[in-house]
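Input (structure):
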């Protein structure tokens, strides 16, 4: 029995808990179970891509691509606005009813808006930056999804590890209760020891039930996020060698693209006249004089309209576009500050957890020895059951801390990669 307990505690592992490991006593099972399977062939990238494809932000990305396509359509057009048909009829007879000298005119024309100098280039720049912005925005959303997936997976790893350890601690407590009960029946221990062991067993049973409930909640969160009922068996990462926030960071790149787009918008507004485009009208003019015996005279009509001035009227539109540009600049600068702060925290947390992991491993080794020595001392009557339970509680906490610290270091690496812009 002593050998069995010692082996059980020494073999605690932080490996992913698979469905095959998910076996509890029937009275401890939670009625609500989420069927989350472990898929050895699935990678972290697969989960991120599936989450990205199923995320509601996909409609925004589609709208951004549609906007870019519309801007390209405008820039590719040879005309700068809506063409119009111009019709005019002038009859002098109603104002000269008694006179034989009057004229009648009929004019028709097809009026075409034309681009102002530099306006079409500015429109093309808007289209190009909109295209770039849509692609980089999609990359930023994918990176954001990677962060959510990383958090969900490592939260799941933590709670599953806690449930596994709670299950093993419960098993030890159950074996101890069985041993104490037998010794009470043999008269080696008092009934109060059996009650104490049973109380400890019920406490461990309660902790195991809570750990199982936490696993169910975390699984449901993962499924809700990813819309998947599978998770990768291995999702550990290699620490990135980036030491600072760079422009290729997906969020920073998207922010810079939005700034370029707003700058192109400002340039376009400066070259526009808000609908008062230069126009060319080509048509005909029909003229008939009453005092002449002939018919209509046919003439060609060419009209060129060029807007002059109007900068005061156009200034508010330029100012509004410039306001949007400065808002994007402020958002980008705020993002950089947040990322720099997050990078410092990620570096600090990883360094601290690595150091505390080394200490926790040493404490774990001592705890395993304490459990074995305490068990021998209790069986030989050298210590009371309550003292042995105190040793168990402290030692099991040390073992649990070592397992959790090992997971936290791996999680810290994933979070560091997220902060510096590494997308799986």
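Output (sequence):
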């Amino acid at each position: 029995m002593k050998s069995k307990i010692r082996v059980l505690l020494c073999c605690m592992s932080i490996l992913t808990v698979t469905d095959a490991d998910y076996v509890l006593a029937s009275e401890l099972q939670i009625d609500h179970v989420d069927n989350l399977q472990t898929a050895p062939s699935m990678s972290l990238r697969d989960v991120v891509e599936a989450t990205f494809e199923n995320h509601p932000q996909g409609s925004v990305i589609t709208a951004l691509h549609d906007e870019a396509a519309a801007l390209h359509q405008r820039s590719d057009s040879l005309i700068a606005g809506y063409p119009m048909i111009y019709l005019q009829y002038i009859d002098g007879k109603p104002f000269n009813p008694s006179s034989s000298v009057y004229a009648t005119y009929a004019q028709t024309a097809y009026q075409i808006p034309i681009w102002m100098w530099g306006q079409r280039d500015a429109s093309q720049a808007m289209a190009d930056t909109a295209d770039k912005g849509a692609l980089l925005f999609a990359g930023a959303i994918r990176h954001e999804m990677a962060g959510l997936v990383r958090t969900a997976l490592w939260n799941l790893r933590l709670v599953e590890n806690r449930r596994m350890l709670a299950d093993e601690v419960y098993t030890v407590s159950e074996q101890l209760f069985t041993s104490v009960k037998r010794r009470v029946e043999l008269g080696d221990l008092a009934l109060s020891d059996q009650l104490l062991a049973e109380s400890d067993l019920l406490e461990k049973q309660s902790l195991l039930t809570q750990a199982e409930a936490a696993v169910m909640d975390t699984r449901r969160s993962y499924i809700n996020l990813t819309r998947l009922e599978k998770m990768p068996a291995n999702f550990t990462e290699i620490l990135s060698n980036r030491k600072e926030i760079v422009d290729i960071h997906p969020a920073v790149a998207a922010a810079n693209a939005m700034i370029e787009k707003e700058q192109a918008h400002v340039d376009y507004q400066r070259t526009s006249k808000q609908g008062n485009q230069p126009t060319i009208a080509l048509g005909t003019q029909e003229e008939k004089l009453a005092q002449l015996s002939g018919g209509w005279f046919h003439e060609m009509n060419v009209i060129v309209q060029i807007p002059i001035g109007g900068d005061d009227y156009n200034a508010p539109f330029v100012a509004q576009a410039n306001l949007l540009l400065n808002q994007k600049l402020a958002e980008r600068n705020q993002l950089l500050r947040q990322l720099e702060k997050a990078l410092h925290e990620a570096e600090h947390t990883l360094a601290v957890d690595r150091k505390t992991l080394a200490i926790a491993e040493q404490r774990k080794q001592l705890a395993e020895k304490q459990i074995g020595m305490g068990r021998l001392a209790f069986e030989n009557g050298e210590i009371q059951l309550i003292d042995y339970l105190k040793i168990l509680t402290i030692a099991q906490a040390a073992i649990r801390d070592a397992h959790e610290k090992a997971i936290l270091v791996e999680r810290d690496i994933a979070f560091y990669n997220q902060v510096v812009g590494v997308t799986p």
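Notes: The chain has a mean pLDDT of 86. The CA atoms of residues 8 and 168 lie 8 Å apart.
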